[in-house]
Amino acid sequence: MAAPRNPPFRAEHLGSLLRPEQLLKTRDAAERGEVPQAELTALQDAEIKKIVDVQKELGYHALTDGEYRRHMFWGSFFNGLEGMTEIQEPSVDLFRHYLPDIAAFLETKHKPAPSCVCTRKIKHVGSTYVDQFSYLKSLVPPEEVKNLKLTVAAPNWYHLRYREGLAYPKDVYSSDKEYFADVAKAYQDEFEILYNAGLRNIQFDDPNLAYFCSESMLQGWKEDKLNVYTADELLDEYIKLYNDCISKCPADMHVGVHLCRGNFVKSRHFSEGGYDRIAIKLFQELNVNTYYLEYDTPRAGGFEPLKLLPKDKNVIVGVVTSKFPELEDFGEMKQRVLDAAKFVAEGSGQTVQEALRRMGVSPQCGFASHSEGNAIDHAGMVGKLKLVRQLADDIWPGEP
């Protein structure tokens, strides 16, 4: 089987784009009750149109709304589920302190952001994404709607974060199996609504999967006597959860997953460690079409794990950093993509040119996983996106 294309495209970005300062100020004022919600919505609409135009001008096809209506990359999915309750100031005792992001919060004395916990049976009661998508699709011709990309929360996000036994009440769910079944059903319902609205391009954003590459997390996991799974057993459970979530997606729904290594204050990353440890399960057992992988620094390891990528799957190599404004060397970045292609080719018995048919290039992560954004300004972001487009045009001339 050939890997699906268009989407993904040769030049991709990971969804979140820097939010204008006025948008952030107006949102904060709306939350304080100083500005009507209608004024904020109108400004969001206007700024989304502008950033869509920027993406078009730069030659991108998997357009997003920049996540301009969100506080954080995971958006509003879990908040909108019946049975999930938002906690504004969660206690640090709720979390596994050895998870890379939680460890970073504690080290820098930042309070954890508001969090969602299960308090009763989980049920999908309406999409919190569909209105965002509907506005986005109003900005493109009908024939381009299929290219639009929506980023969604990882289904394991509010499970791994919490200490064993705290993700849900035991009198609500007797086991992870029951809990995961309802989470998966909620995603199935969400994707059906989005598909019917015209969405054909989903990207999961998942820092958790990359945590299974982190030696510090794995060591902490071993030392935590409360855990009932080994780390490998839990990764198996999460892969099954993912596969259940997308099991009813129609064949023409492209599904990708971005393994994020974290964006924190001043562009700090969270996790380190190559993909080697999880590559077989990640590439061969997770039923997605495309992997968006961070490869901007040595913390992600080498390209060798790409030898395990099956012939019917794509990889987008994130060799350009979104964290800092300094532009990478064009020739060096091109060579890195070609180096990655050599491993894809070796593993699948293909030529490098054949392997390149299943590849693309992108920044390693979004530019604003959280509202404040990375240590880069708008001009710097545009420069990075131009570089990615130029790389794609050079390696795959004439292709979107």
TrEMBL record:
<dbReference type="InterPro" id="IPR038071">
    <property type="entry name" value="UROD/MetE-like_sf"/>
</dbReference>
<dbReference type="GO" id="GO:0009086">
    <property type="term" value="P:methionine biosynthetic process"/>
</dbReference>
<protein>
    <recommendedName>
        <fullName>Cobalamin-independent methionine synthase MetE C-terminal/archaeal domain-containing protein</fullName>
    </recommendedName>
</protein>
<dbReference type="InterPro" id="IPR002629">
    <property type="entry name" value="Met_Synth_C/arc"/>
</dbReference>
<dbReference type="GO" id="GO:0008270">
    <property type="term" value="F:zinc ion binding"/>
</dbReference>
<dbReference type="GO" id="GO:0003871">
    <property type="term" value="F:5-methyltetrahydropteroyltriglutamate-homocysteine S-methyltransferase activity"/>
</dbReference>
<dbReference type="Pfam" id="PF01717">
    <property type="entry name" value="Meth_synt_2"/>
</dbReference>
<feature type="domain" description="Cobalamin-independent methionine synthase MetE C-terminal/archaeal">
    <location>
        <begin position="176"/>
        <end position="376"/>
    </location>
</feature>
